[in-house]
Write a structure and sequence with these properties.
heterodimer; A: alpha/beta; D-Maltodextrin-Binding Protein, domain 2; 2 domains; six-stranded mixed beta sheet; five-stranded mixed beta sheet; 14 helices; 46% helix; 18% strand; B: alpha+beta; Beta-Lactamase; Heat Shock Protein 90
Amino acid sequence: MLRKQTVYILLMIVALIGATGTSHADYVKANKQNSPVQFGLTAVVVRENLRFLNQWAHYLSEKLGHPVEFVRRKSYRDVMDLLDTGQIDFAWICGFPFVKKRDPEFIQLISVPVYAGKPLYHSFIIVHKDSPYQSIEDLEDKVFAFSDPESNSGFLFPQYLLAQQGKTPEGHFRQTFFTYNHAETIEAVAEQVANGGAVDSYIWEYLNDRRPELTEKTRIIKTSPAFGFPPLVARVGVDPWMVRRMKDVLLKMSDDPEGREFLSGLKLDGFGEPSPELFDSIRKMVAETRKALPWAAAAENRKNRLAGGKE
Amino acid sequence: MKFGFHRISGLSLKLALTITVVVAGVAFTIGAVMVTIDWQRFHRELEGKALLLAHSVSATAADDILRKDHWSLFKTLKKMAKEGPDELRETRIVTAMIIDPEGLVLAHLHPNDHPLGLPLTHRDEREEQLSIAIRKIRSPRIFSSDIGIFSNRRFLEGVVPIYSDQILLGFVRVRLSHQELFQKAQRSALIILGLTLALVVLGSLLGATISRRITKPLTALTEGMEAVGRGELSGIGPVLVKDDDELGRLAATFNNMARELAEKKSLEEQIAVSEKLVALGRISAGVAHEINNPLAGLMNCIDTLKKHPNDQELVDRYLPLLDKGLNRIKNIVESLLIELRAEDAQVTDNASSLEDLRGIVESEISGRNIDFVWDNDLGQDVLINKRRVQQIVLNLLKNSIQAVPEAGMVKFKTFREGNSVILEVSDNGSGIPPEYRNQLFDPFFTTKNNGTGLGLWIVYRLVESMRGVIEVETEVGKGTLFQVTLPTMEVYT
């Protein structure tokens, strides 16, 4: 037992030394492998841009001096589980899962994207442009599309809005479903499968730029207050040298032309240093939702079980 | 013109039309059968497609229904409608939906008209009945609209129930338009119609060819037979014999017949020529004989006068004999050349001039008990060639008077018939024996002791010179009738 602990401490020391002045060779040696760094992507970016994301992965690999691979999963929870089980090293997740309490904590914040000059975004409540609805109240007994049960903009915010009135989504809407993708939430509203939906303002504006024929069929009836932009995190167990290198590469993207090209492809200004209080508004919203509806968490969990998450 | 066309094309037209009608009938019948078969095949294909599409949706639907993943269900429907296999591309999916066993919408291709989680809205009662019927099925089935065949709203619906662990979760309904069926059937019907029309055209061409082949030799035969009928035997070209079929044999037989007829005719012509030569010989002999007879006496007289040139008595006795003999020869020659006496042709008078003859004939009869009937019906308005007609009538009447016995009857009758003048001389004499009838009009043929045999011959020549016709009816023991028909025009000249 004591010996095991000693080995662990020794390893930690080695890791710390590595963090101060080790090289890629040391990293490879220490990890006894040259397998690619696994980088999880969620619906906070448009994951369907395969060619663009492959080129970006290639760029990151070159800057990092180590291969990088993007990993896509259907839901946020899938990606969180991959982080938890150590199958991926980095991930671009949402503010909502980030602020959730984990014990033990297995993620660490490395960067927050800067969008339109600020590391902030909003949640949009959208309806079909031809529909008469002006507020989420008008959508009573209608069909509503959420993006992901772990999405701040796509689920937490509308839930919070309803909780303010003492309502739950199940009680307010006739039917709800999750698309697990902000882009598809917009599609569901545009196709009128859902009467309303909640989406990430960054994704909506990104698509408004790239696929205006889709977004022009929708109308924004509610814009949330600003929230911290979906952050990039590293798994706690990842070699600190690699974490530092990744952070470095991301932060310096806006300094070189090639990096700026990828940033403009993502419609971002750059990747910035996170400030701890950035996600406080989300934390506050979670707390207020729970306070208004003490049983909401349980209901939410139950619903998540039924509506898809993980079986 | 119309009759000519009809005669030429009657049979060929009928044959061609018949063949065309038969070919068209067969072709259209086969075409209709093919169109029907095609329609049924397309219908089965469409049914297969509807079920296939419904199955493709139901394959993934169970999990999504259990997870209440309406978005995924909708995407499945959308994908099916958008990205069917290539052969399904032209299929028009009218609508597609997934409903739960209670009839609530789980997903619908037209979510705006059929919102999620609500009962399916129905356009009419028929649709509602269909929905009720569909909710009762427990295995894949095809439903067809019972709207009229030619309605645009006609459809086919493939319905597949969705099960998970033997529990019914819902139904996939995929509705396909009949339009595709119509388009396909229309295309194949057009092709078949084109082929049918081509067959009909070919059939009528074939019919025309066959009927031409049959009717051409028939037409040639008909023309040949008409020529035979007209007696133009030499002008018949042989009918072309093509094949050794019935028509060919008919043509060959006709050709043989025509050839034999032509040979017979030429033989007859040869006989006629030789008969003429015989008659000419007889006439020449007669002339020679008649002239030779007085010549011998005349030569005798001249010889005698040469020996006794100064014997006045001989001269007085022989000169009248010479005169008589020479006159006889002159009369014979004149009679033979009778039609050449040009001055006769110009002497015309009206028909009443025939009355002059009456006295002459009666004086000829004088002393004999003969009943002479004179019935001249021609008036002043009819002009005749006086000398010639008088000569004809006189010769015939003299013959009759000589032919009748005592108390016999001779009758002369004239009348007009159309453009002709008819002269009839009849008697109730002994008639002409059959053996003489052929030689009746020959010169120098006579049965009388003192006759010259030129009377009837002269009549014949005179009638012929006026382009008339002389006919004889005679019966031994009963009498004879000579009938002369002269064209009025000729009489006038």
